[in-house]
Amino acid sequence: MAQTESSWALAASGSEARTVHAVTRQGLPELLALLEPSAAAFLRDNGFVAEAGRVVLVPGREGVSAAVLGLGAAPASPWSYGALPYALPEETAWHLGGEADEDAATLGWMLGAYRFTRHKAPPRKPARLVPPEGSATARILAEAILRARELINLPAADLGPAELSDAAREVAERCGADFEEISGDALTQGFPAVAAVGGGSHRAPRVAVIRWEGSAEGPLVALCGKGVCFDTGGLDLKSAEGMKRMKKDMGGAALMLGLAEALMRLRAPIRLLVAIGAAENAVSSTAMRPLDVLRTRKGLTVEVGNTDAEGRLVLADLLTFAGEHQPRLIVDAATLTGAARVALGPDLPALFTNDESVAAALLAAGNACHDPVWRLPLHEGYASWLDSSAADINNVGSRPMAGSIVAALFLRRFVPDDVPWAHLDVYAWNDSARPGRPEGGEAMGLRALQAGLMTLLPAWAGS
Fold it and tell me: Which family does the similarity line name (predicted)?
């Protein structure tokens, strides 16, 4: 995945570079006074008032001599800088200047420079940023997000369960962690629901496990990701339109792998257990059927009310596995329900949690780092909608309402009562291109989870 490496968007330190002057409306008079009179006059004649996101190229004797980026009146987000890589001359090198926030600018620049180029050459190459010396954290977060985007963007023909497991292995090797792959008879016995979901495909399911001892005394955090590499809906077949983007149905796994990489590379004082359920929900004579009763790792039986509600079956086994290790926190992520998108749209992941301190930390962190999530309730009144006459629980609700809540209530049955747990129902996709967010796969919620987890650690140390 060479196009996701930092060198793709960044210039080497010491490169000869021009300056991007980032400026707010309040700071514009000072900048105009500092610039050459001809440059200041050029900006005035162009009607530049530092409106957010506007980029003006300042001419010089030998072409473009500098650039000015408007930040508006509000504090800048990474997205304020996301258009720069393609607004500036191709493959030129640039320094940050003016009122630029170095971390936000580095993150926004790298995320804005990304394009999925595995099967199509880009029409042009981005301008490069000479990274500020103090931007290492932003670079690590950006690289983790870019790798997650790349996984989500890969066509299902390129990324099946084996390839997704290999991607988890690469993360482990990159970060000095231990890796284990569970497949075959061991999967059937230990993760029977994952095996059932993937049983209809010739590409065999598997569970990828990463273990990292970052801090021997640190709390254990478990991350679980739904890795359905393509979802036909199974025998309850999706429509053509509903199936169109189902290569992204492993977006939760990509998000958890990106988060794990970021935490490990940033040397978070924790221990990590990462479990990725990699499967393909296909149609064949060996696929699970409506009203089949499945066994789960926890021992609960599940009636299959709909084969298209397969992601929660994968997570059921992963959450049980995570709970067996008595972690301080379990986090799972999945492209789980269309109902969450109906409620919150494509940009806001739905957050469900059984712990108020976890909710507060994640909500505050998401808002602070411009990666928001929105909490929805684990409303106990809907739990009976999952009742089954044939098994301990059904995998879908008996009423066509509150689908994301009911799915979260299903998952909760597989989490130990005394373990804090957060579930993120994500879209994992940008429907259209915006600065810093090209059309395609997206690791939404990754930065909120990383920052929120860091704010929780001091409180855990005293518990």
Answer: Belongs to the peptidase M17 family.
